[in-house]
């Protein structure tokens, strides 16, 4: 459920006026507001009723009643108040630790693991595992639900992520993110073939205007869109299957950035159903190997927050990623 809410804890949608506009909500007209929201968000109807009473649910910009009947064109917004911040508890979950000292820990996260607790994912997260592994030695800057977390990667993206063990390290690492001295290199498999061997996507990203689960390139003067730059480079071409193995280097770190930028230029990631991938015959035939999008955070370069030493960490491709590449190479006779 957490993917339905943005980083501010907001779920919003519009009831379409025709099925072609948005088939997902096409049958919502005539449904009670609380019934609809319960089905879409996973929250209980009693919880939604309480939120409505407290003014956290609006219908067409006005405070909504829980039993309001939805009509085509209605715009709905539900806000989870800040009190929904979930305090994480330690859990004995295995971690692939790449590096650890008194200031930071670098781990390789498996695909499918959520980084921090959120509505719908109260446990089983990377934070729960870090709390068990590190005890109380995690930065408190991120609050009770995100202790130590400096940056994030998507649930279905595998690979490297670092966490801070004290507030000084957290501030230093956060500054590296802001001034782009922390570098992150990804490996990805995308649909289609690039004409060039390398390139850059420089396109601002903001919340999708119609689907709150998604981000999108927004070219209008929308203050909610933020600059986003992704550099890409071809590593291998698979013309027989219609895919390309490539590297992506982030200059900025927006939500879903690589996934949005690749879809924007017509090359959605293999397996990325949210942004247009997952529909080829190869993907359908090899669905058991696809843990969401084929995207792996393969390298992380940063300066040690205490010593200033430049450090490079690497994570090998997951087994399923290697298996997919082997199948693609076999089709090319490699």
Give an overview in words.
With 334 residues, the chain is an alpha+beta fold. It has three domains: 2-83, Structural Genomics Hypothetical 15.5 Kd Protein In mrcA-pckA Intergenic Region, Chain A (Roll); 97-178, Pseudouridine synthase (2-Layer Sandwich), CATH 3.30.2350; 183-332, Pseudouridine synthase (2-Layer Sandwich). Helix content is 20%, strand content 25%. It contains seven helices and 15 strands. Strands 5, 6, 7, 8, 9, 12, 13, 14 and 15 form a nine-stranded mixed sheet that branches. A four-stranded antiparallel sheet has the order 1-4-2-3. Strand 2 (57-59) and strand 3 (62-63) form a beta hairpin. The model has no long low-confidence stretch (mean pLDDT 88).
